[in-house]
Amino acid sequence: MNLIRLAQPASLDNLRLASGEPRPPGPGEVLLRVRASSLNYHDWCVVVGEIPAADGRIPMSDGAGEVVEVGPPLGDVPQPFAKGDAVMSTFFPRWRDGPVGKDVVRSVPGDDADGFACEHATVPASGLTRQPRGYTHAQAATLPCAALTAWRALMVDGPLVAGETVVVQGTGGVSIFALQFAKAAGATVIATSSSDDKLARLKALGADHVVNYRTQPQWSRFVSEVTGGLGADHVVEVGGVQTLAQSMRAARIGGHVSMIGVLSGREGPVSTALLMAKNLRVQGVTVGNHRHQREMVRAIEANGIVPVIDSHFPLARIADAFRHQASGRHFGKIVLDI
């Protein structure tokens, strides 16, 4: 089979096409024919060395495909999948349910363990869920990291209630999924971008209000204006250092800011006075668990939500796919067809 290995020191130039033989599945495992993966900021951090990975690691946390072989049951636990089932990965294969903990956030595909930049992967069946009915493998591959992060931020940690207001930032995967989930739940959505063309596309997807943060850097004032001075109930914060202050100002008193991204930096000052004065809840979000993903799949099917895919790249052009991601020109998810 064809696969990609990341040689150290990590860089786009050290993403190398290789070959190998798939491992037969053991107890509780399945052999998956991987058909697609999708790029996340997390994967970028791995391939450029910001997140350590072993020499020769197979990257990519997201994977979707069909089961081609099923291993024997693990003890008394029956196998949840059969040959031919359409399945997708989970970001934290060990996190089945309950609160996040140190023991369940290990073995992340693509850095702690080999990922899905390969034609076949042998993985624990417990770390997979079914795909939404009617989805292509490419569509399913966009869900395990970006979509589930947006789902947990709004529907689990929110929890979002119909009639509330949500702010989403930019046009990456998490933000667009957050827009789609929020609209499906009956929320008003305010979207930001630096591109008027992208803002028009966000409006077409259902955003009620849009604001260009290049021409209106104090965009929290726009949020205050369109909410009658109240502010937003929820802000999906993906920018990090340079946008957190605006997100906190944009939130209503007692509002909820989901801290998801660090695109503009990993550390910076926080206005503790504003945090206290507004009684804000600023909560870090790192994807979600197996139960969250199953619930998200049911919601996607009930609402007919379809992922926004910007572009497709073949596996051998994985470095070009990451260069496209780094350019910031994309709108939605970038998919690897495998």
Protein described:
The chain is an alpha/beta fold. It has two domains: 2-144 and 289-337, Quinone Oxidoreductase, Chain A, domain 1 (Alpha-Beta Complex); 158-284, 3-Layer(aba) Sandwich (Rossmann fold). It contains ten helices and 15 strands. The chain has helices at residues 41-47, 137-140, 143-156, 173-184, 196-205, 219-226, 241-250, 272-277, 290-303, 318-327; strands spanning 2-6, 15-19, 29-38, 64-70, 86-89, 120-124, 128-130, 165-169, 188-193, 209-212, 232-237, 251-259, 281-284, 309-314, 333-337. Helix 3 (143-156) crosses helix 4 (173-184) and helix 6 (219-226) runs parallel beside helix 7 (241-250). The protein is globular, with a radius of gyration of 20 Å.
Provide the fold topology:
Blueprint: E1 2-6, E2 15-19, E3 29-38, H1 41-47, E4 64-70, E5 86-89, E6 120-124, E7 128-130, H2 137-140, H3 143-156, E8 165-169, H4 173-184, E9 188-193, H5 196-205, E10 209-212, H6 219-226, E11 232-237, H7 241-250, E12 251-259, H8 272-277, E13 281-284, H9 290-303, E14 309-314, H10 318-327, E15 333-337
Parallel strand pairs: 8-9, 8-11, 9-10, 11-12, 12-13, 14-15
Antiparallel strand pairs: 1-2, 3-4, 3-6, 3-15, 4-5, 5-7
Helix pairs in contact: 3-4, 6-7
